C-alpha cells in the first residue's frame, strides 16, 4: 500500500466482505478513527466523502512484505523473542493478540520454549453503530492462563488500548504479564499498566503536531 487511495480501496473491500470497523483497523494497522474515516471516504454503506481533509492523524504500518513470507516472519518473530529473552525467568506462556499477533507469537513461543495462547480483543466487534458490550476472549484451542507468567505479543501499538485490554484480561484470569513485544510502536511508550513494552521499531511523527 503506497498511498491513501490504496488504503481507501482496501477499507472498502474489507467492509464489503463484512468486516467490522474494528477488524478493518486491525487489518490495516490503523486507529479506529482512521478505519472509520477510510470506510466513509470510500462510500461503502454511506455517501462518499469528497472533502479534501487528510483524515485523522495516524501512521499506517505496512509489514505485509514480512507477513507474506514464512521465512521473513520467522526471523521477525525470532528478533522479537530476543527482546524478551532476559525479561522473566519463569515465563512459560506466550499470548498472541489476534489476528496479526498470533503468528508472531507462535515463533516467539517456539524460540523461548513456552506454551502458546491467543486473545481475541473487543475491538474486533467494534463498529460506529454498535456499542462494545461483548468482552474479548482467550481461545480454548490453545493454552490457558492458569495463574502463569506471560509474554504478550502483537504486531503494532496504535493507541495502546488493545494491549491494555489484554493485560487486564490476563490479570482477571490470575496471570502475570511480564512483558509485551510488538513489531512497531506508533506511540513510543515504555510500558502499559506498568508492564514493559519492547518493539523492533518505534515510529515517531515529527512536525507541527509534535511527536507521536
TrEMBL record:
Any Pfam family matching the protein: Pribosyltran
Single GO BP term: regulation of gene expression
Keyword terms, alphabetized: DNA-binding, Transcription, Transcription regulation
Region (Disordered): 38-60
Molecular function (Gene Ontology), one example: DNA binding
Domain Phosphoribosyltransferase: 63-187
Function as written in the Swiss-Prot or TrEMBL entry: DNA-binding transcriptional regulator that functions as a regulator of central sugar catabolic pathways.
Matching PANTHER family: OROTATE PHOSPHORIBOSYLTRANSFERASE (PTHR19278), PYRE-LIKE PROTEIN (PTHR19278:SF41)
Entry similarity comment: Belongs to the purine/pyrimidine phosphoribosyltransferase family. GfcR subfamily.
UniProt comment concerning the protein's domains: Contains an N-terminal DNA-binding winged helix-turn-helix domain and a C-terminal regulatory domain (or effector binding domain) resembling phosphoribosyltransferase (PRT) domain.
Protein name according to UniProt: Transcriptional regulator GfcR
The organism of origin for this protein: Haloarcula japonica (strain ATCC 49778 / DSM 6131 / JCM 7785 / NBRC 101032 / NCIMB 13157 / TR-1)
Amino acid at each position: 500500500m503506497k498511498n491513501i487511495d490504496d488504503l481507501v480501496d482496501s477499507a472498502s473491500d474489507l467492509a464489503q466482505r463484512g468486516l467490522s470497523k474494528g477488524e478493518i483497523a486491525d487489518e490495516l494497522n490503523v486507529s479506529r478513527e482512521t478505519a472509520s474515516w477510510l470506510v466513509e471516504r470510500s462510500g461503502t454503506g454511506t455517501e462518499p466523502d469528497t472533502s479534501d481533509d487528510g483524515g485523522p492523524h495516524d501512521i499506517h504500518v505496512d509489514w505485509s512484505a514480512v507477513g507474506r513470507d514464512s521465512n521473513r516472519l520467522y526471523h521477525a518473530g525470532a528478533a522479537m523473542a530476543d527482546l524478551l529473552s532476559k525479561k522473566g525467568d519463569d515465563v512459560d506462556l506466550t499470548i498472541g493478540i489476534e489476528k496479526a499477533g498470533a503468528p508472531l507469537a507462535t515463533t516467539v513461543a517456539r524460540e523461548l520454549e513456552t506454551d502458546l495462547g491467543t486473545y481475541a480483543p473487543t475491538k474486533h466487534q467494534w463498529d460506529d453503530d454498535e456499542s462494545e458490550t461483548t468482552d474479548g476472549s482467550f481461545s480454548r484451542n490453545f493454552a490457558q492462563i492458569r495463574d502463569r507468567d506471560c509474554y504478550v505479543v502483537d504486531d503494532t501499538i496504535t493507541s495502546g488500548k488493545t494491549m491494555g485490554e489484554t493485560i487486564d484480561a490476563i490479570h482477571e484470569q490470575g496471570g502475570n504479564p511480564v512483558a509485551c513485544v510488538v513489531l512497531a510502536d506508533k506511540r513510543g511508550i515504555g510500558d502499559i499498566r506498568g508492564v514493559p513494552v519492547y518493539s523492533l521499531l518505534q515510529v515517531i511523527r515529527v512536525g507541527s503536531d509534535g511527536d507521536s
